[in-house]
Amino acid sequence: MTSSLNHATLHSQELDERKSLAFSWFMGIINVDDLFACAVCHSPECSKLFCGGCLRQWYSSRNATQRCPCCQRALGSEQFIYCRVYQEVNEMIDRLPSKLDELIRLINQPLRVCAHHGKELLLFCEPCRECLCVKCLFGDPHRAHLEQVSELEEARQKFQAIIDSEKSFLTERLSTLSKMSKRLESNEHDMVEENDRIVENVTWATEQIVEKLRDGLHDRMRQHVEPVKAIAQQQYAEVEDVMQRAVELNKEETCATVMMETFELADVIRKMHSEPLPQAQVPNLEFVNPITPPFVELSFLIRDFSQKIFLLRRTLSEEQSIEGFTFRLKGHQDLDENGNEVIKLSLVVVDGYDVHDVKVICYPKQGTTVEPLVRLMDLKLHEDNTVLEFSDFVSMEGFLTEVTDVLNLRIKFRLWATYYHKCVHKDWYIGRLSGVEMKPKMEGRTRY
User: Fold this and answer.
1) What pLDDT, on the 0 to 100 scale, is given for residue 420?
2) pTM
3) ∠ CA(295), CA(321), CA(357), 5° rounding?
4) How many C-beta atoms lie closer than 10 Å to residue 374's C-beta?
């Protein structure tokens, strides 16, 4: 059945293309114009073996002897006869396209001969899903189920009847799938619409928060920065003016007027000594962030650090707990990818759960020029999560004081991307305190 379907009759367009290819191939092999070319001028423009014009010219130039242009045999012009072979061959070629239809159909007709025995395929074996010849019937595996072998026409009618009986099922299924497709399109539209609505609301709320933060910034600047800035600018202008007047007075010759101006300028400078400078207060940077929770901070002060590393004391600190999480600092010597010894400091999540894509910032001790080290990483429960890696103790400058052998390290990271995620964590923490274990659902988080 499958073989018959695969060898179905070609579509008319494909059939025309094949006919054109076959005709071009035939004309490329047999060139009728060359076959019937004039023996004198070799031009195939007329239907004679000799062109009439060529013959007349031939005989007029040879009045004394009239001979055949080919064999030079004595021959009068009245002995030449009209030849229709050229015309008939061309007429036959013109009829070829109609014959090519039959040829193409013959070439593309379904397989009717057994590939194994060369016999005509007359039977169909249903278990093997295969067309058979008579010889195939007595070979393996077909002879094991002869009762399920039938003639081709009978088998085709049987399966055609099955197809016809299933038309109602196919129609109903097509209708169901069409309705489902429309329903899915409607669901997709509703989801996009709802998502756009939420995005619009979030965007509006974010814009309101940003505007409020900017207003708060301006209020703080008007209250704490602008008054001091105005006084500083005023005093700066006064000092500049005094210095300019002093330069100008130095260029003048002594007289009563210059004397009085010099006295007054000295008095202004004397008063400046008692005038207090404006004080630039330490700015209050504690702005309220209504969207992103603050960083979590851990501080570690490890004494005898190098000795603990040499003595293979991996655990360096006591446990520190923050809102349901418990952390511990560990350190050890290990090998890097190139086989070189390195010192690794790891943060272990003793209690809590896995947190992904965390931006971990490691701060050195205060008063050092070493920049904080930043790493984006996953904090996995009960695993050594490497936060710092050094080639030796000397490279730990800024974190380790070699004289006292004390490691000073502050680690900041944000466990929750938004207050929504923190609320989810709170539910988990409350449930855990109540004896209910559940894994917090934190899908779609992005760390900042």
Assistant:
1) 86
2) 0.48
3) 45
4) 10
